[in-house]
Amino acid sequence: MKQKPTRDGETAEHIASVLRAEIIAGDREPGEVLYQEELADRFQTSRMPIRDSLKILEREGLVVVPANKSATVSPLDPASFVEINEMRAVAEPLALKIAMPELTNRQIDRAITIQDEAERSDIAVFAALNRDFHMALIQPCERPRLLAHIASLNDASQRYFHLTAVDLDYSTQSHDEHRALIAACMARNTEKACAILERHILSASEKMRIAMLSKA
Amino acid sequence: MKQKPTRDGETAEHIASVLRAEIIAGDREPGEVLYQEELADRFQTSRMPIRDSLKILEREGLVVVPANKSATVSPLDPASFVEINEMRAVAEPLALKIAMPELTNRQIDRAITIQDEAERSDIAVFAALNRDFHMALIQPCERPRLLAHIASLNDASQRYFHLTAVDLDYSTQSHDEHRALIAACMARNTEKACAILERHILSASEKMRIAMLSKA
DNA sequence: GATTTATCTATTGTCTACATTCCGTCAAGC
DNA sequence: GCTTGACGGAATGTAGACAATAGATAAATC
Fold first, then answer.
1. Predicted model pTM
2. In a 3-state reduction of DSSP, which class is residue A2?
3. What is the pLDDT of residues B14-36, one digit of tens each?
4. Which of A125, A193, B128, B167 pairs with A3 at a CA distance of 20 to 30 A?
């Protein structure tokens, strides 16, 4: 029962991961101000590790940390959503292409399990499972930098799920595309799998962009 | 003559940029230990801003900062070099594709100027000009996240230039490819330009990888 | 009354001191 | 001789105090 490691050298990472989860889940509004002192109080620490964690999140694009001013949760805007998904649409197929020869049946099964659950879940969990599914298939690529990059993009992208009520229509299409992707992977058809993945990302992006605009 | 702003909220960024330049230029060996106190002494500041700057460089992949241990200049290894260039090979053509409609003749002229100088320079300057050339053509794409990503990859990639003596053969080929890229941009042939760019990055990567292996 | 300037408060940036961790060294035990 | 564990120095992690900044509010001037 390690309840309070007085110092582990990783408190900042821990705090960052808590805040990251909150921001991604939409628990914190875009533009919300993050006061160092307030967070220090909450996490029972000094402002120093808080500052570190805010810098980590800044790098991931989840918060904005202006010099000499308070940090804020970064805004959600259509342009940046489009940009993030343009980047995903080239990065994920690249990872998949590299991962494919290393991809085991066992790993595909894991992706199927995730997808099964995603189809039974409501939106809040769906967003997270959607991300897990995408990460599962590309994990074997053994490219740490690429994987971190993609994970970061997925986090950023996931924030937008809460803006647009994901309607039944989109969910169905998304599930179909995931199933098709799985099939292509099982057939070890790299080219087809990558093409499906790219189109899947771009079409989801486009659907949500339209939904965002019609709401705003 | 502002020689010592006691506090500007950006000292860490400044320090990071100095260290970044040193690491990229190869002035600091991979694996070299970076002591906080030593750097604090050098930059006439406390360890605090130093810590921040090391974290910044860590996010860019230029240094490694293990918990509770001293930071070191990140190692150079062929696998990570390949990874970086695989990522460049998809990110840069994407940026170029988006930038092309916005690309002005004036901006192409700037790229030409850079290329002219690169062809007259020795390797130390060449590495920097090579990066500037790549950034120049994609600048108009108006994708801050994508541009930052590419800039970071180019920094990381540039470090490897000093490992392999860039022989005449490669320089010539690189210059030819840059010229072809410029021509495609002037003709506003997006597809061709992107294809040239992708092949250029991958072939340069492959050449240097082989050079690295034969040296090690 | 509008506009500029001064002041005041809330918040961040940095410094110094101390706690903790890491790692090499050395002694003890097998 | 080799391994194990304790010790100590050197380096990092964190806390709390202080300095500097930004933004709002009040005061002064025209």
1. 0.93
2. coil
3. 999 999 999 999 999 999 999 99
4. A125
